[in-house]
Design a protein that fits this description.
- The chain has 502 residues and is an alpha/beta fold.
- The protein has three domains: 25-98 and 332-499, DD-peptidase/beta-lactamase superfamily (Beta-lactamase); 103-174 and 285-329, 3-Layer(bba) Sandwich (D-tyrosyl-trna(Tyr) Deacylase, Chain: A), CATH 3.50.80; 182-282, no CATH class.
- It is built from ten helices and 20 strands.
């Protein structure tokens, strides 16, 4: 399992761990980073006995000279986890540019009569905006819908005789990524993909204990809408002894029961006094949910919807005219959310948007074709790549460290280089690296994309050394059977070694 914060299948968020490795070997004389000294710093980390069954792939390259300073299995194919998002976001910036915005519209082919009635259906037309949510309007998830509803009211609309139809025709093909597991689809990190999506197509659920042992737990859901029905038989138990990791959506004390394709979720189990359970639950049929939200907002503003809600992927009716619009944040901001937060749904939407822009079809397959064209145009070595989705959730995704570094080098010279670099988490500062590498030489010097999947950990991006040398790097480890945090600590130690390279 793999969520929007880079957590892997069957794993919990790893606590911050102190680096237990001495980095003195990298403190050498002035000059370009020495390949031999890098080997002396990195090889002991990846050669530890507990990593004997694991498979490491690493490449480090100087951005100023183009020299490869370190390589280990760099041409081999690895499961990249969320490092796949580097490929997707690079393609999105290249196709759209950082200033592009995605427009959602409200349209109708019906007549607005003198009584304030739309004599026909109202279409909410999605064009791939992944941020119809509270992300840029804190605590106000329906702000975009209220903006469009207010425009309708200002035009005198008081009643819709037809339906509110969520139109998702901009995207085609499967709503889920290739090779996603059934267990992934119930949780927010595996939410269905639609050109019309609301609140990341998930509901955040939390359970807190009742007043006494045996009392029902208290269920809260955000956002509150009718898209997901959650029933709960979770009870309160005695306080549990302190655990090394907090309860989360995959904790065995709470189970989730849900039929595939259903929006009826049942939670069962127990929560101890003083404890808390949290989980992000995926919403089925996102376009229908989004249309329902608009209908609810319209009703709240005094606009009656007489025909209910529906969805469509068919071409819009002839003569449809735009009544209201909402523009997304810029593509640079969209990409920042994807890489800083490791947002799976948004990455999948971007892949389809790239296909739509470059190939004329909003499908994952056409997105992958566009990515292959980009790699060829930029001179990125993509031999050994296997692209199954856009987020890295699929266990069938394959990338090579050499290809990743080639992409990073190419994007560092790209016209939209600054938007790409600025989208990456900064070690010890923000995003999925906020709690990693604090107090080490890598803090503030490493900007890189994380990746965590069961049996796969990765980090790829840029580092500025203590002497000001800029390096591009990719570090991937597959098939480590120990705890994920052990692999993460080793990767962070390598990053710190790069930061002190001389």
């Amino acid at each position: 399992m793999f969520d929007g914060n880079g957590v892997g299948r069957g794993l919990r968020k790893a606590p911050v761990i102190a680096l237990a490795l001495v980095l003195g070997a990298t403190r050498v004389s002035a000059g370009d980073p020495s390949p031999s000294r890098l080997r002396n710093a990195i090889d002991p980390i990846v050669s530890r006995p507990d990593f004997a069954p694991a498979f490491w792939g690493i490449e480090v390259r100087s951005l100023s000279t183009g020299r490869t300073l370190y390589a280990r299995n760099a041409e081999k194919a690895f499961r990249p986890a969320s490092n796949m998002k580097l490929v997707t976001t690079a393609a999105a910036l290249d196709a759209y540019g950082p200033d592009a915005r995605l427009r959602t519209t409200v349209e109708t082919a019906g007549r607005l009569d003198g009584l304030g009635r739309i004599l026909g259906d109202l279409y909410l037309v999605g064009r791939g905006d992944p941020n119809l949510s509270a992300r840029f309007t804190p605590d106000h998830p329906t702000a975009a819908f209220e903006e469009m509803a207010d425009a309708l009211v200002a035009e005198g609309v008081r009643r819709i005789e037809g339906r509110v139809i969520g139109h998702e025709g901009a995207f085609t093909g499967e709503r889920r990524g290739s090779d996603w597991g059934w267990e992934d689809l119930a949780w927010g990190y595996g939410a269905e993909v639609s050109a019309l999506s609301f609140a990341d197509n998930l509901v955040e659920a939390s359970l807190t204990p009742g007043e006494r042992v045996g009392d029902p737990a208290v269920l809260e859901t955000v956002p509150r809408h009718g898209c997901l029905t959650v029933s709960c038989s979770v009870t309160t138990t005695e306080a549990a002894p302190p655990a090394p990791e907090a309860l989360n959506g995959n904790d065995e004390t709470v189970s989730l029961l849900r039929e595939p394709g259903s929006n009826d979720v049942r939670l069962a189990g127990h929560v101890p006094l003083g404890g808390k359970w949290e989980g992000r639950l995926a919403v089925g049929d996102p376009a229908l949910c989004t249309a329902r939200v608009l209908a609810e907002v319209l009703e709240a503003k005094g606009v009656r919807v007489m025909g209910g809600v529906a969805t469509s992927s068919a071409p819009l009716p002839s003569g449809a005219r735009v009544l209201a619009t909402h523009d997304s944040p810029s593509m640079a901001e969209i990409v920042r959310v994807v890489n800083k937060k490791s947002q799976n749904l948004h990455a999948e939407m971007l892949l389809r948007l790239v296909g739509l822009k470059v190939k004329g079809e909003g499908s994952a397959a056409k997105g992958h074709e566009a990515v292959a064209d980009l790699a060829k145009r930029l001179g990125v070595p993509d031999a050994g790549w296997g692209l199954a989705d856009g987020s890295g959730l699929s266990g069938s995704d394959l990338l090579t460290p050499r290809g990743l570094v080639g992409l990073l080098v190419a994007m560092d010279r790209h016209p939209h280089a600054s938007a790409f670099r600025d989208s990456l988490p900064i070690a010890g500062v923000d995003g999925t690296l906020e709690k990693r590498m604090k107090g080490t030489p890598a803090e503030g010097r490493v900007t890189a994309k994380t990746g965590t999947l069961r049996l796969a950990n990765a980090l790829a991006g840029y580092v500025t050394t203590v002497r000001g040398e800029r390096l591009a790097f990719a570090i991937v480890v597959n098939n480590h059977e120990g705890k994920s945090r052990e692999a993460v600590a080793a990767i962070d130690a390598i990053a710190a070694a790069l930061a002190t390279a001389r």
